[in-house]
What does this fold into?
Amino acid sequence: MANRRTQIQMTPEELDAFLAEQMKVQVATIGKDGTPHLSTLFYAVHDGAVAFWTYGTSQKVVNLRRDPRMTCLVEDGQAYDQLRGATLYGIARILDDLDEVLRVGGKVAARMAGRPEEEFDPSDPQVRAGLEKAGRKRVAVLLDVTRAVTWDHRKLG
It folds into this structure.
């Protein structure tokens, strides 16, 4: 009989679907003194990676420029038998290119608004103007996952 940990792991397809339906990620970076810095952000999936945009001078970006290791937690559920989640370990990529920042920002903004991503297409001049206003001091951050730990307690029956 499989152990409990194996029973509740998500398949890669289940993980992709889970990440596509959630909106918030807890992001942990490593501070200058080695302590964790934790924050919650809205995210999108961009080029297969968990991605968010944030101010380029934010503490998390300062930390990532010094040490690109990052851990992300996405979770859902209120009752024990409904808990699902993924802890994603990896290396952050910081994107400074304005077009890339706006693409990620557009995806995040669309998710936050409950709209299809194509409604926040940065190639549309009107949309681009709004995204540029919000994003001119921002960077995009993508997580290149090296290890994932997942759980879905609904599988316990």
Summary: The CA atoms of residues 44 and 79 lie 25 Å apart. Residues 98-113 form the longest helix (16 residues). The longest strand covers residues 138-152.
